[in-house]
Write a structure and sequence with these properties.
31% of the residues lie in helices and 26% in strands. It is an alpha/beta fold. The N and C termini lie far apart (43 Å).
């Protein structure tokens, strides 16, 4: 990640696409989403389960996310990976992989497993592909997702990790349904989001979520809530799981 100089415009375009993807008409039946005037700092005017989905954030915030040293302080990646307790043979997915900040760390944690790096921007996946080759990491699979489907193999994954991206999903219900299908029974979904309960965190309001809201949305899509890990000072780390069929 050192020396990264990716144009901010690519990331802003991604955020804009996430919003615009939901502006058209959907299939027949009542949509779980509503559109209206934005009422939240950093919001898109698109709402799901009483929450305003995040819109594109200011360029200075994007610059923060593109700076690896700043992310090291905010995300504490080594601490996060430690509490996830990954099996070396685990099959995992990094949703919203970007240029691979967590992807490559995950790949080293599961040397006998596989990491699916999912993003909706082909240029970012090209960067991951090049860097994985340069690092000799053969267990990284870049995957081009859509705004409704991460395009993961069904019933294969042990863990899906979403770091500071869920709040931007334009179609969270569809994405969660696809991720549930991709997990093995008992497979885990780890959602990391800045704490919406703390207004002192210097992140726009729509880009933070309360634990209550995260739990409400994820469990409504069929996941079981497992635990809230007090691993990071500014972010929730919530663990959910795909239910195991009775008698299995």
């Amino acid at each position: 990640m050192k020396g990264l100089n990716l144009p901010i415009a690519i990331v802003l375009l991604t955020c804009a696409q996430l919003i615009l993807a939901g502006c058209g008409g959907g299939p027949s039946g009542e949509s779980p989403y509503t559109e209206g005037a934005s009422v939240t700092e950093g919001g898109s005017g698109r709402f799901y389960m009483d929450r305003e989905i995040a819109g594109p954030i200011e360029s200075e915030h994007e610059a923060f996310w593109l700076d690896a040293s700043a992310r090291d302080v905010a995300d504490l990646p080594n601490r996060l990976l430690k509490v996830l307790e990954l099996n070396p043979s685990a099959v995992v997915a990094d949703i919203g992989a970007g240029t691979g900040y967590f992807t490559f760390r995950l790949a080293r944690e599961v040397p006998h497993g596989r990491v699916y790096a999912v993003d909706v921007v082909p240029a970012l996946l090209d960067t991951i592909r090049v860097r994985a080759t340069e690092a000799g990491l053969r267990n990284v699979n870049p995957v081009l997702g859509t705004f409704t489907d991460p395009n993961l193999p069904p019933g294969r994954l042990d863990l899906i990790l979403i770091v500071a991206s869920y709040h931007e999903f334009s179609h969270p219900r569809e994405m969660l349904a696809s991720m549930l299908a991709a997990l093995k029974p008992g497979g885990r979904l780890a959602v990391v989001e800045y704490r919406g309960e703390d207004p002192t965190i210097p992140v726009p309001e729509a880009h933070r979520m309360t634990e209550e809201q995260i739990r409400r949305e994820i469990t409504a899509s069929g996941f079981d809530f497992r635990s809230s890990l007090e691993a990071l000072p500014q972010q929730h780390v919530l663990i959910f799981a795909k239910p195991v069929p009775s008698g299995a």
